[in-house]
Design a protein that fits this description.
By secondary structure, the chain is an alpha/beta fold. It is about 45% helix and about 15% strand. Strands 9, 10, 11, 12, 13, 14, 15 and 16 form an 8-stranded mixed beta sheet that branches. The longest helix is centred in the N-terminal third of the chain and has 19 residues, at about 160-180. It is globular and about 85 Å long. It starts with 7 loop residues before the first helix and ends with a strand.
Amino acid sequence: MDLSTLNDRQREALLYNEGPLLILAGAGSGKTKVVTNKIAYLIENGIQSWKILAITFTNKAAKEMKTRVGKLIDNDIDAMWIGTFHSICLRVLRKNIEVLGYKSNYTIYDRQDQSTLVKDALKDLNLSKDIYSKNSIISQISMMKNEEVSPKEAEAEFKDDIYKLNVAKIYAYYEKKLKENNALDFDDLIIKTVEILRDYKEVRDFYQNKFEYVFVDEYQDTNSIQYKLIKYLAGDDPKLTVVGDNDQSIYKWRGADINNILNFQEDFPGAKIIKLEQNYRSSQKILDTANALIKNNPAKFKKNLWTERKGGSEVSYREFNSSDEESYEISNQILKLNYKGKSFDDMAILYRTNAQSRTFEEKLMREGINYKIVGGLRFYDRAEIKDILAYLKVINNPNDEIALKRIINTPKRGIGDTTVEEIEGYAASHNKSIFEVISSLDESDLNLRSEKSIKAFVSSINLFLERKKDLPLYKLLELVLKETEYVHKLEKEGTVEARGRIDNVNELMSNLMSYPDNYSLEEYLGEMSLLTDLDKTSGNKGVSLMTVHAAKGLEFSIVFLVGMEEGLFPIIRDLEVEEDIEEERRLCYVAVTRAKDLLYISSCKTRFLYGKSTPKLRSRFINEMEEAIENFKGGDEKLLRVINYNDDSKTKTYDSPYREKFKGETYKKSENKKEKPKIQTTINVGDKVSHKIFGKGMVVGKKEKDGDFELVVSFDKKGLKKLMQSFAPLKVEN
C-alpha cells in the first residue's frame, strides 16, 4: 500500500494497532479514508478479513467503506463483517436467538405492525385511542426499551400516574404479543443481541474470539445500548478503533450520549487518542468561523481545524428585516452565482426546521430555479399540508370528491374505508356527489354505524362554507383547525414527528397571513395549484434545501445558512438548558463546516413564522462567530430597506409577490458613512396610526434609539410591530 497519500496524523492512526484507539476526526479531515486504509493495511499484513468487524450507522456508509477497501487491495473481503448496528445484530440473532426462547424464523415488525399491536392493546385494555395516541405510545415504548426498563419496572415506577401506568400496561401487552408471535421490533435487534451477549458466556466468547479487530464509525452518535454492544463484542483486551467527533454530536434527541466519546479513555484504559485537524474540504476563512463558534463549548477534547488551501472568500453575514426579504434576496444571489458559472447543484440552503423551507421553495419556483428537498418532503407534499389544503378545497368546492375522501376521516373520527366505499357506491348509483349524499343521510336508505360522526363532519363543513366569505384566509384556517382539533390531536401525540407537523401547519398559517384580507379562497387555491404543479416538475437536481441534521455528512461548494435567530437557531422550545444550547452550537458548527468555498449566513429582525410576525433577536452564535466574519453587516438597516449580498449596485427593486404596493419602488442601500436621520417627535404613545401594509393600530411604546425613535405599534390585525419612526410609512389618524 502507498501510505504517502496520508498526512502524519492519519498515518499514525493507521499504524497504531496495539489496543483501543479513538480517532477524533474533525469535519472534512478524511476519517473514511483513514478507516478504509487501516482495514486494508491489516488485511494486507496477514489479518484474515473475517476477523474484522466494522459497524456503521447507515447502509450507505457501510457500502462505501466496503467498496473503498476493495479498491485498495486484491484480497477477498466478502467474509469481512461490515454493516449497520442493526444488520450486524440481525446476523448474530439468526444464529443464536433460540437461547431466548424464540425460533430462528422470527419476524421483524415494521412501524405499521407496531401500530396494529398498539391498536389491539387499546381495544383489549379498553383505553381511548384519542387519549393514547399510537405514535406517542410507540415512541414511549421505544424509549423504555432502549433504556432497558422492563414493563414490570415501568408499572412500578408509574403507579401514581394513571396515564403513564396505562402506557406501561400497553407496553406489557405489546411485549407479550411480540413473544407470542415470534416477532421482534427494530429496537429488539440490538436489545436482544446485547441480552444474549450479556447472559450467555459461550456466545460472547465466540464473537470476541472471532473478531480480532473492531471498528465503529460516528462513535459520538452511539446510545447506551449500542455502547454496551460494542463493549461486549470488543472484549477485555480490545483492539478497538472508534472514529468520531465530539463537536458533531447532534442526536441527543434520539438517544445519542456524547459521554460515550468523552469517556472513551476511562471506559477503555490505556486507550490512545489521535486528533485529525487538517481539513480537506473548506477554505481557512470558513474554518476560522467554525473554530470561533465551537470554542464557546466546554470540551474535554479541543480541536482547531486548519487547511493548506490558499485564499478563499470572506464569510458573509446579513441581517434582513423580514423572512420574506431573506428568501427573496437569497434567491437573487443564487441566480447571480449561477450567471457567474456556479452550478445550482453545488448550492445548499440549510435551516433549523423543516417548516422554514416554504418561503424558499416558493421564491425558487417563481424564479424558475430547480431545487430538491434532501431528507424530507417538499413543503406542499407533506401529509399535514395536503390535509389542510384538502379542507380548503372542499370549502371552495364541496363536490371535490378526492379532497373530501382525504379529510372525511382526518383527523380520525371513526369513519372507516368500508363506510366511505358504501357512500361512494350509493352516490354513483343515484347520480349524486358524495357530499350531497352525506348532507342528506336521513333521506337515504343507507344504514351506517358512523352516521353520527358523518353528520358532525357535514355540520363542520357547512359552518366553513357559511363563514368563508366573511373571513380572511388565515381566520378561515384558524376556524378549520379549531373545529377539527387537527393541531390539538397532534399535540396529544407528544412525539418529535408530531411537533414537526405542527410547525408545518403553523408555517402554512404564516403563509395565509401574508395575503391581503380580501384575497379569495379561489384565488389562493389557484395559486397553490400552480406552485404544486411547478413543484412536481422541478426534478431531483438543483439547489439542495435541507435541515442541518439532514446535511450531516454532506458538503457543498456554496452554503446559505439561514434563520440565525434566538429561539429558532438555537431552537428553544422549553426552559433553556445549557446542555441543549451546547448541542445547538455543535449543530451550527456542522452547518458551517458543510461549506467548501462560499458561506452566507443570515438572520431577520422580524420573522413570519408559526402564524405570526414577531421581532427576533440575532442568534448568540452570530455574535460568537463575528470575530471571524469579515463581511459582517447587521443592525444598521431600517425597516423596508433591502440588502443584496455582495451587490455593487446602489439600488435594489423589491418585488414581493404578496405586497403589490412595493412593485417598482426603489430603496437605496446605506452608505458606509451613516446619515443621521432627522428626528420627528410628532408621533406619541396613544396616537392612532395607519400603515400601508399593516393597517390601523395604536402606538403603545416609544423610545430613543441610535438618533431615531423606535415605536411599538399594536396593529388591529397584525399584532405588535417595532418600527423606526423616520423610516416607517406611518400616518397619524385624527
